[in-house]
């Protein structure tokens, strides 16, 4: 693996890790599969994805989403012993709606749950590295 200059990393206040978005190209989409979960969508994201797919919003909502506690989430698919996002292309190992993916996906791995405990990220995401406490970024 090539080590990139620190300027290639994304750092966010309050997070004790750095993110190398270039590493996503060889990861295989680990953030898109695993346990069943939720990918929440707002109305704007629903419209954007349905337009991208060139389908009616009502059809998109009924065929691609499920409603949980009054909010919409993308359906997941069980495959072998894991689940994947409905839009994760398992053959190509990438997101089939990448250009219009929801904000939840765009902001990964900088989610609030990882502020206090980033440890799960280090084994899940090859793009995430612990910050060296002896270096000022």
Labels describing this entry:
137 residues; alpha+beta; three-stranded antiparallel beta sheet; 5 helices; 22% strand; elongated
Report on this structure.
- The chain is of the alpha+beta class and 137 residues long.
- It has one domain.
- It contains 5 helices and 10 strands.
- It has helices at residues 43-53, 57-64, 103-106, 113-116, 119-124, and strands at 17-19, 33-34, 40-41, 65-68, 71-74, 76-79, 82-85, 88-89, 94-95, 128-130.
- The protein has a 3-stranded antiparallel beta sheet, with no helix packed on it. Strands 3-5-4 form a 3-stranded antiparallel beta sheet. The protein has a two-stranded antiparallel sheet with strand order 1-10.
The gist of it:
The protein has helices at 43-53, 57-64, 103-106, 113-116, 119-124, and strands at 17-19, 33-34, 40-41, 65-68, 71-74, 76-79, 82-85, 88-89, 94-95, 128-130.
Model regions low in confidence, pLDDT < 50 over at least 5 residues: none
What string, H for helix and E for strand, traces the elements in order? Answer: EEEHHEEEEEEHHHE
Overall geometry:
elongated
Strands ordered across the widest β-sheet:
2-7-6
Q: Round the Cα radius of gyration to an integer and report it.
A: 16 Å
Largest sheet: 3 strands, antiparallel
The level of helicity is 10-25%
- β-strand percent reads 15-25%
Tell me the domain tally.
Answer: 1
Task: Walk me through the topology.
Layout (H helix, E strand, L loop, with lengths): L16 E3 L13 E2 L5 E2 L1 H11 L3 H8 E4 L2 E4 L1 E4 L2 E4 L2 E2 L4 E2 L7 H4 L6 H4 L2 H6 L3 E3 L7
Antiparallel strand pairs: 1-10, 2-7, 3-5, 4-5, 6-7, 8-9
């Amino acid at each position: 693996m090539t080590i990139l200059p620190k300027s290639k990393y994304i750092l966010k206040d309050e997070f004790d890790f750095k993110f190398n978005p270039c590493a996503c190209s060889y990861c295989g989409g680990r953030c898109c599969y695993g346990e069943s979960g939720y990918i929440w969508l707002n109305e704007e994201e629903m419209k954007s994805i349905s337009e991208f797919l060139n389908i009616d919003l009502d059809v998109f909502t009924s065929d691609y989403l499920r409603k949980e506690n009054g909010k919409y989430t993308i359906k997941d698919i069980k495959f072998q012993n894991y689940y994947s996002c409905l839009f994760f292309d398992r053959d190509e190992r990438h997101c089939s709606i990448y250009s219009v993916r929801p904000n939840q996906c765009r902001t990964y791995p900088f989610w609030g749950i990882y502020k206090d405990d980033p440890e799960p990220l280090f084994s899940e995401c090859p793009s995430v590295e612990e910050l060296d406490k002896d270096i000022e970024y």
